[in-house]
Amino acid sequence: MLRFKRVVRIIVARGEDHLMRITVITLGRASDYTGRSMVELELPEGAMLRDAIRVLSEKTNPLLYERYIDGHYIFVTLVNDKPVLSPDTPLKDGDRITLVTPEMGG
């Protein structure tokens, strides 16, 4: 309980008192890295894609953030069904991030 109160104070002190709800969907092998096919996140207003991946990593797989940012894990990344290339892509309340591993076959 005390920890929650302290976190709320930090958020308000930074002027980030409004939280955005973001949905992350993982498809294909991407869900193997997270162990889930969908995760709901709450992020402060002004958060970027990299912030969402960091929080997703904290909730699912500690290596995910580092390996996503350094390019070790290759994902096709969509925000609201549109491809994005930069982890500095800004997010809005209600956005949906989709992570898909590129698959090849023949």
From TrEMBL:
InterPro entries: Beta-grasp_dom_sf, Mopterin_synth/thiamin_S_b, ThiS/MoaD-like
SUPFAM superfamilies linked: MoaD/ThiS
Annotated Pfam families: ThiS
Gene3D superfamilies associated with the record: 3.10.20.30
Record-given protein name: Molybdopterin converting factor, small subunit
UniProt organism field: Desulfurococcus amylolyticus (strain DSM 18924 / JCM 16383 / VKM B-2413 / 1221n) (Desulfurococcus kamchatkensis)
